Amino acid sequence: TQLETESPARTLSIAIVQGNTPAMRDLNEESFAHSLQAYSHLSLAAAADTVHLPAVIVWPEMAVRAILRTDDAARDALFSLAEQGGTPLLVGALDDRQSGETLNSAFLVSPAGEFFGVYHKTRLFPFAEFLPWPFHIFARWWPVPSLGAGDNMPPLLLPNTRFAVAICYEALFPGFFRQALNEGAEFLVHLTNDVWLGNTNGPWQHLHAAVLRAVESRRWLVRAANSGVSAVIAPSGRIVRRTELFTTATLHEQITLRQDDTFYTRWGDWFVLVCLAGVCLMGVVRLWLWTSSGNLT
């Protein structure tokens, strides 16, 4: 029987909004107004849902194509929206450094009118977000300006919990969340905008890569994608809820907050490396035995 002293599982109600806004690369008033209108409408409806009453509403990558720290209109609009809904927002947007670099970021917006957390994407997509070293000489002719990369992956804080964020293809990397998990992250969030992949297998493959991140960490994973596929993934890898491609939708789910470690989150790829070293050692020993027996001419 369950011990009476065992504490009950802690849960968190979340909402994911999928605005299905068109692909836009330029930072302009039209793209900002279009996205803000779509996501504001969905967020206010989600915040007004008294049945689910989300503790946080999650927007996808680049939902707001504006540099929030310096764009007063964008910042004030988000502060007003969070206050009106009375719910924190996790918003994919842009940030910048004093050096002038633009960053692909996720901002946690408080209903009190402040940012109380920001994550900067640390692994940039080659050629789409930056030019790898040998190709720097083509920078002046490249149609897409390079972004800067973040240098840390701390968990973001909500009242009574903390969570880890990945943006776009960062979720493809095994062990990507390990740092934040070891710093106490109790669930995972993946923000992406797969509209560039169109109606292909790409968005679905990206979704299934995120499933692996939930399984290896034994954490719930919340995935917000602008054009789909948005989803809620259980620690077992089961996709509990998901949207379709190129639809406007909202997902609600009650997730469980977890603090337990897995072997992988604690030790990472050491097991694989030890196995690889063992295979190499066996190959060397076999080669030595073969040559010492006189079979090598």
Search tags:
297 residues, alpha/beta, six-stranded mixed sheet
Could you please describe the fold and organization of this structure?
This protein is α/β, with parallel strands linked by helices and 297 residues long. The protein is built from six helices and twelve strands. The chain has helices spanning 29-47, 72-85, 178-182, 202-217, 263-267, 270-292, and strands at 11-18, 56-58, 89-96, 102-110, 114-120, 156-158, 161-167, 187-192, 221-225, 231-233, 239-242, 249-256. A six-stranded mixed β-sheet has the order 5-4-3-2-1-12. Strands 6-7-8-9-10-11 form a six-stranded mixed β-sheet, covered by helices on one side. Helix 1 packs parallel to helix 2 (72-85). The longest helix is centred in the C-terminal third of the chain and has 23 residues, at 270-292. It is globular, with a radius of gyration of 22 Å. The termini are far apart. The relative contact order is 0.14. The model has no long low-confidence stretch (mean pLDDT 90).
SSE topology:
Layout: E1 11-18, H1 29-47, E2 56-58, H2 72-85, E3 89-96, E4 102-110, E5 114-120, E6 156-158, E7 161-167, H3 178-182, E8 187-192, H4 202-217, E9 221-225, E10 231-233, E11 239-242, E12 249-256, H5 263-267, H6 270-292
Parallel strand pairs: 1-2, 2-3, 7-8, 8-9
Antiparallel strand pairs: 1-12, 3-4, 4-5, 6-7, 9-10, 10-11
